[in-house]
Design goal:
Number of strands: 19
Helix content: under 10%
Order of helices and strands: EHEEEEEEEEEEEEEEEEEE
CATH class: Mainly Beta
Distance between the termini: 15 Å
């Protein structure tokens, strides 16, 4: 377990291993400047937390509307805020079974990494907001209740919230529950974000309400508009529990340039991409069809160096 020291982050928002088998972006400069000014004036303020921890909104941002050819173009732009990072980390907890599979009888599939990796190196069961920024911006709202994070999309634009562990080779797993949703409403994780103080690049792994998954690579530093590339086009899978009132356990394995996607312990596919070698991670939501689409995040866990 790595020790994480307190840091002050100015966050700019924009939106082997035996476990592995082998298988857009920002508006014009003038529009971006206007968008930044608008978001900065509407940004929530910090609220004190127990123990002197003051997580202010590390507000996510952009994500794009799909366009043909594997590239997407975004519709919004960056902004800034401050996060004081706590020095302790949560402890590991047990795996939760997907919807329709009682914990007492659920047998994980053979491809499930959690059956081989042992205890997680970092885990948050979402009992409080100590490891996440709270509050609302123009894209998302985040709150904690009932032992879970409630992440709400306030726009059809995807938005993400970051947390602070930095990882290189890892298995990242998050448990998401949805209630009311439709079609293209989406949620998931963003990982290997190179700079926590500028979360404008990284890999975005998502599920939709109608049971599809994708992996996208976002890089706002390319050209005047940035670039969103579909490494895995949106694709339906029976491994993803589709429809409202469902639970999905999403997993992303990253070892070197190998990126392996999992749904409820089942391996979906694997791709190779070496653009981002390490970085921070977070969760995202996009209310594409349901007003104020909310996803409940029950748990996030990380295993370090899973190939060793």
């Amino acid at each position: 377990m790595k020790q994480i020291l307190p840091i002050l982050v100015i966050a700019v928002l924009l939106s082997g291993c035996g476990l592995i088998n082998t298988p857009t972006a920002v508006p014009k400069d003038s529009e971006m400047a206007t968008r930044v000014a608008q978001i900065l004036t509407s940004m929530p303020t910090a609220t004190s937390q127990a123990g002197g921890k003051i997580p202010t909104p590390l507000l996510p941002t952009i994500i794009p509307s799909p366009t043909p050819g594997g590239i997407e173009t975004a519709t919004s732009a960056p902004t800034a805020t401050v996060l004081v990072v706590p020095t302790d980390t949560p402890s590991a907890t047990a795996t939760t079974a997907p919807t329709g599979q009682p914990t007492s009888t659920y047998v994980p599939p053979a491809s499930d990494p959690t059956t081989k990796l042992g205890s997680a190196d970092w885990s948050d069961i979402m009992d409080n907001s100590d490891y996440w920024p709270t509050g609302a911006d123009q894209f998302t709202d985040i709150a904690f209740s009932g032992g879970a994070m409630q992440l709400t999309g306030l726009s059809t634009t995807d938005g993400w919230r970051m947390t602070f562990p930095e990882e290189t080779n890892f298995y990242l797993e998050a448990i998401f529950q949805v209630k009311d949703c439709s079609g293209n409403d989406r949620y998931g994780v963003i990982a290997r974000v190179p700079q926590l103080n500028s979360p404008d690049r990284g890999y975005i792994f998502g599920f939709t309400c109608d049971g599809r998954y994708s992996l996208r690579r976002w890089n706002a530093s390319i050209g005047a508009k940035g670039e969103m590339v579909n490494l895995v086009e949106w694709k339906a899978s029976t491994a993803v529990n589709a429809g409202p009132s469902q639970t999905n356990r999403m997993g992303l394995m990253a070892i070197g340039d190998r990126l392996v996607l999992y749904a409820n312990g089942q391996q979906l596919t694997e791709v190779r991409d070496s653009t981002f070698a390490s970085g921070y991670f977070g969760v995202f939501v996009g209310a594409r069809e349901t007003n104020n689409f909310t996803v409940r995040v029950d748990q996030v866990r990380v295993w370090e160096n899973p190939g060793q």
